[in-house]
Amino acid sequence: MDAAMVKLSTVSLSTIARYAMTAASSLYTLTRREAGNVDYAALATLVARRERFHRSDLVDSIATTNPTFAGRTRSLAVPCWAPACAVLPGSGATLPWSTL
Predict the structure, then answer these.
(1) Exposure winner among 80, 81, 85, 88, fewest CB in 10 A?
(2) pLDDT digits (tens, 9 = 90+) for 27-71
(3) Can you give the residue range of the structural domain that contains 13?
């Protein structure tokens, strides 16, 4: 990328007279920076739109009829530090500290 920029600046400024070089190089720099800002804005817009698309896709899959979501919701309903967590619901298994 850097080599391309050196070639581009050399080609674009090679025909400029010496007395106008300062103004021409500042105009070239301004144009290059503005192009970079436009590219960054376009990329940020693209990323935001894709994020919005994927987020809506994920949110659509969150439903109480989805077995994965329903199971995860049930497992998060009881905090693990509560005494009720000593016996795991439905498994009959106990945690090591339930006998203390």
Answers:
(1) 81
(2) 888 988 998 999 999 999 999 999 999 998 888 777 777 788 777
(3) 2-60
